[in-house]
Design brief:
The chain is an all-alpha fold and 225 residues long. The protein has 10 helices and no strands.
C-alpha cells in the first residue's frame, strides 16, 4: 500500500487516472434536474425518492460487503456501475424505480465477479437468495448485459480509493511514524467511504473527493509523530 515509487511514475499514474475520469469514466448527477446541475445543493423535492433509493442501495451494498468481509472499495466500483448507467439513461431510473434495485444488486454482483474472480453458478444463486426471490437468475443476467452495453465494457473506473493509494506516497518517510501514517490513511479512507453514500458527491470527480478528504485529514492532524 505504501510502497515508494518514483516521482515520474507517480505523476504518470495521476495523469492517466485524471484522463480516464474526465473522459471514459465520466459520470453526471442524474438525481438533479438539468437546470440544477451547476448548483451546489441537494436534489429538489421531485428527486427525493430517487435519492432515497440510491442511499438505501448503497447502505445495503456496504452491509453485504462487510458481512462477507470483502474489500470496501467494491462499493465504490459497484456504485460507479449503477451511477454511470443511470447517468446515461436517467429516464429509466425515473420511470422504472424497480430497476434501481436490480441495477444496484447486479452492479455489486459484477464488481465481485470482476475484482474477486467469482464466476461459479452458486455465486449468482446467492444474489437471487439475497433478493428474497424477487429477482430470478435470468433478471440478473439480462441486467448484467444491459450494464455492460451501457458502460461499453469499461469496468475498471478510477475510484477515490485509487487516488488515495497514490496520495499517501506524497508523505515523506520521515514526516511521521508508520502508526501515524496508517491512522491518517484510515481516516481518509473512512471519509471516502462515507462520500459514496452522500448524493452531493454524485457527479464529482473521484480525484476531487480524494484530494479534499486528504487535505481535510492533514489539516486536522495536530502533531504528526
Amino acid at each position: 500500500m505504501f510502497n515508494m515509487i518514483s516521482a515520474v511514475e507517480l505523476i504518470y499514474r495521476f495523469e492517466a487516472l485524471l484522463h480516464l475520469e474526465s473522459t471514459t469514466y465520466l459520470v453526471n448527477n442524474y438525481l438533479e434536474p438539468d437546470s440544477q446541475r451547476n448548483r451546489i445543493e441537494y436534489p429538489a423535492k421531485p428527486c427525493q425518492d430517487k435519492t432515497f433509493c440510491r442511499t438505501r442501495l448503497c447502505g445495503w451494498i456496504y452491509e453485504v460487503v462487510d458481512t462477507h468481509e470483502l474489500d470496501r472499495e467494491l462499493v465504490q466500483v459497484s456504485m460507479y456501475y449503477m451511477d454511470r448507467y443511470f447517468s446515461k439513461h436517467p429516464l429509466i431510473h425515473r420511470d422504472k424505480p424497480s430497476l434501481c434495485y436490480l441495477a444496484g444488486m447486479t452492479s455489486l454482483y459484477m464488481a465481485i465477479k470482476i475484482y474477486w474472480n467469482q464466476r461459479n453458478a452458486h455465486f449468482l444463486a446467492a444474489f437471487v437468495k439475497l433478493s428474497d426471490g424477487f429477482y430470478a437468475e435470468s433478471d440478473f443476467l439480462v441486467m448484467e448485459q444491459t450494464l455492460l452495453d451501457a458502460l461499453e465494457w469499461r469496468m475498471h473506473p478510477p475510484t477515490p480509493q485509487s487516488y488515495l493509494d497514490l496520495l499517501v506516497v506524497f508523505l515523506p518517510r520521515g514526516a511521521c511514524s508508520p502508526f501515524t501514517r496508517r491512522a491518517m490513511f484510515e481516516r481518509i479512507k473512512f471519509l471516502l467511504e462515507l462520500s459514496v453514500t452522500v448524493p452531493f458527491f454524485l457527479g464529482k470527480k473521484p480525484s476531487c473527493i480524494a484530494v479534499a478528504a486528504f487535505v481535510e485529514v492533514m489539516e486536522h492532524e495536530r502533531a504528526p509523530h
